Amino acid sequence: MVQLSPVDTVRELWARFERDGVEAALGLVDEDVVYLLQLAGGRILHGSDEVRALFAEFEAAGVSLEARLDTLEQRGDAVVASGTVRMHRPDGLQEAQYHWVFHFAGGRLRRLSIYTGRDEAVSSLAALNALAPPPAEFEVATDSDAGGTITLRPTGELDIATAPKLERALRDGRQPGDEVVLDLSGLEFVDSTGLRVIVKGVEAAARERWELRLRHGPPAVRLVFEIAGVLGALPFEVP
Question: Tens digits of per-residue pLDDT, 82-120?
Fold first, then answer.
């Protein structure tokens, strides 16, 4: 499948929203995108479920939205879109122009910010990247020490989109007797898919007679293992 460019992704998101509604648009992006609404004091939505909840609030209040796209402009890894929103309310129609900044990393939408003024939207790019840059693209670095121990160091977010890359790094080319360390210290996030890949890696090591040890990640990553109830069952190194 050919990956859409950031501009084409935004254009397709807009077309889906206009044609089929918010659920169709959300189907094109990851579930963990952050939405910053710089309106009425500001509101932050974490992920698709909170966007769905917001639109459910609109529906319950008898509010519907129409959005017309006027311009698109790519600026580095971001796309600035300007358009007009028509809000149909029980007490009448409201129409206003808004400006959206779509932040991409590794070809994936990571953050969407909404502003009432274009100058504010454009000037926010540098500030937002400095304060809360989009997550780095997922990578797995590999090195070996003099004793032959292989260390894998994934960085970025380990989720449904990136887990196959870690799975290949863990499993490809393994031989009985290999000693492998999976260092999680560079991860920013792990979801259930990423956790499953790690657990399957531990099972494969035992079955195929090679050794896999895990090195703890930051507190947010460690918490995922604790919540899943597998922290004590996996071969983590003792700090």
Answer: 999 999 999 999 999 999 999 888 788 888 888 888 888
What does the pLDDT read at residue 170? 95
> Tokens in use for 200?
């399957």
Would you tell me the crossing angle of helices 192-208 and 163-171 to the nearest 10 degrees? Answer: 10
From CA 34, how far away is CA 53, in angstroms rounded?
14
Q: Tell me the two tokens of residue 116.
A: 């009432």
- Write down the pLDDT at residue 134: 56
Q: What gap in Å lies between CA 236 and CA 126, rounded to an integer?
A: 39
Residue 203 has pLDDT above 70, yes or no: yes
pLDDT of residue 40: 47
DSSP 56-119: HHHHHTT-EEEEEEEEEEEETTEEEEEEEEEEEETTEEEEEEEEEEEEEETTEEEEEEEES-HH
b/e sequence 98-131, b meaning 16+ C-beta within 10 Å: bbbbbbbbbebbbbbbbbeeeeebbebbeebeee
Give the integer Cα–Cα distance in Å for 39 and 36: 9
